[in-house]
Write a structure and sequence with these properties.
CATH topology of the largest domain in chain A: TIM Barrel
Order of helices and strands of chain A: EEEHEHEHEHEHHEHEHEHEHEHEEEH
Largest interface: A-B, 72 and 71 residues
CATH superfamily of the largest domain in chain A: Dihydropteroate synthase-like
Number of helices of chain A: 12
Radius of gyration of chain A: 23 Å
Oligomer: homodimer
Number of domains of chain A: 2
Shape of chain A: elongated
Distance between the termini of chain A: 31 Å
Chain lengths: ~350, ~350
């Protein structure tokens, strides 16, 4: 059961209150280069990114936002630190969400200016707390704990609430997974704003994928989280793919096919790893959310994978293509992947 | 907090009662080919596999076990289905654990024979329940639920307990993560035997890695699990690497270095992804459990990564190597990775 939260709208994309969990990423181009940034936004959107964030470190980057927003097929979030004028400019440029901590931009008058401009445009704001940026007084009172992070979020929230601003999303990022889980759990008991999940400093592409999946798996399986971003030291398109794979693995949301396959064992008589890799490559952009099984054992394969929409299995020289456990075709092993792709396209034509 | 369980010994490797969570894998060679199987056991052990399972489908495979056990640097588990004579032979061959469901091998007399032989050798037995193999009466009574799986495990457990056999490990594998979590949680309330975690049909190498990490992250973060196996359609050595990465990511157990790095952003002036990949490759077998940071920002990098044992960061042409946030060396960017490897080796020499 997912935690009940309020809902905010990021452009036409809802976050919270049971809306589909959205996948986000962030451009790593120079935002001032609006052409390069737009191209990356486009690539991210094609990979299934629901919302794209861009860094707005200076005036020139803020100026580039209008063009980026105009060309984007998905809502754009402006990432702002400290300077409320950049937030105002981003809002004027038409961004659909801000990422900004109100406690860090100075006087309440400045916050009020940003809040009024956001309200006029129905733009929500994400408060992003991370364990490294908790204030000294909170650290002294609560130590480096999940509670210190939650208290920090509640301080920022209180500033917004005093100004009658409630279109808030909250993220809490600790360096370790256990504290991150604790923090989101505590927040879910103390506030009802939707939450943005992420594991900070997840790391290199492979280890970061494993760490993000393990951490987000821990959070999402507890019903926590309304939107997520996987952070990797890699092409941000990879972040989107991993985000979707995590949601698919937990059966929270699907995009395209899911591939299941048995671990190879002593009974396997075909190059299962090679075939599975080829199938994954050729059908990864297939648009239907079907389950495709790649099984190593011709005797049990079709039966064991009868819940799969489509599947293949091979023995010595001979391959089978099956659909919900029923054998469709027998083909020479070398034509197995082609035959599967053909049947997938038949399925697509039928629907 | 990890759930309290009993402890069993698999050879000299403990499972349960707070012992380090062990990483397992399974050979995919033909067990009858003892030379090929021994070579794979060796490769798995080198990668950090604590316990290796081998399939024992027939008499010839059982006969090969003596040689496999004799050459193995780690305990061996025999995977037995239905035939109690294969279990008896495996025990005679010196295996350190069995995987066998007592309800599936016929009369209680046969089970008693296996149990007595296991007790004589202090060999524990894993009961492996999966959602597809739950008996009809249980399915009729409980439906396809977590409770049906737990009841199935408890039936097998009851057979062993009637024979005063308690050296039991239990696994519960459902096809979906949510039901798997529910099943292990229910079991932890109803029995105190140590548990073996795994996500069944995890799938192709990349998706299977994400699904296993998400599922095991959900379980391990709840304090569930005493030993685990990641199942992938890939070289089983890869299963071991992913298993260790999951334990590292959750800070439950460490082997070798952990790499952290920031996602690239508009401020990054070096090829962070390329450098991170090279570092991960060159230091993945480094024996100390240190944290290595690869940061993209020369201004904030060393400070942000001051909790890392070693780190590098680069700007335009210039690179820094740092240790706990203190700069050790400035080097041309092209020599950054070499310098890091050198400092890692210095650290090794010191310890």
């Amino acid at each position: 059961m997912r935690h009940k939260t309020r809902q905010v709208m990021v452009g036409d994309v809802p976050i919270g209150a049971g809306a589909p969990i959205t996948v986000q990423s962030m451009t790593n181009t120079d935002t001032r280069d609006s052409a390069a940034t737009s191209a990356q936004v486009e690539a991210l959107a094609s990979a299934g990114c629901d919302i794209v964030r861009v860094a707005v470190p200076d005036q020139e980057a803020a100026t580039a936002l209008s063009a980026i927003v105009a060309h984007s097929p998905v809502p754009i979030v402006a990432d702002i630190h400290f300077d409320h004028r950049l937030a105002l400019e981003a809002l004027q440029a038409g961004v659909h969400k801000l990422r900004l901590n109100p406690g860090n931009i100075g006087s309440e008058a400045k916050v009020l200016e940003v809040v009024r401009a956001a309200q006029e445009r129905s733009v929500p704001i994400r408060i992003g707390v991370n364990s490294g940026s908790v204030s000294k007084p909170l650290l002294e009172r609560y130590g480096r704990t999940a509670t210190a992070m939650v208290e920090s979020a509640l301080e920022h929230i209180a500033i917004f609430e005093r100004l009658n601003f409630y279109d808030i999303v909250v993220s809490l990022k600790a360096t370790d997974v256990a504290m991150t889980v604790e923090a989101y759990e505590e927040l879910s008991r103390r506030a009802s704003y939707p939450t943005h999940l992420g594991i900070t400093e997840a790391g290199t592409k492979w280890f970061g994928t494993v760490k993000s999946a393990a951490g987000l798996g821990a959070l999402l399986s507890r019903g926590l989280g309304d939107t997520l971003r996987v952070s990797l030291t890699a092409d941000p398109v990879e972040e989107v793919k991993v985000g979707w794979a995590i949601l698919s693995a937990l059966e929270l949301r699907r995009r395209g096919p899911v591939f299941i396959s048995c671990p190879t064992c002593g009974r396997t008589e075909i190059d299962l790893e090679g075939i599975a890799g080829e199938v994954e490559k050729r059908l990864s952009d297939f648009p239907l959310p079907i389950t495709i099984a790649i099984m190593g054992c011709i005797v049990n394969g079709p039966g064991e994978a009868r819940h799969a929409d489509l599947g293949i299995t091979g023995g010595k020289g001979l391959g089978l293509v099956f659909r919900h456990g029923q054998i469709l075709r027998k083909v020479p092993e070398g034509e197995l992947v082609d035959a599967l792709v053909e049947e997938a396209n038949n399925l697509l034509a039928e629907r």
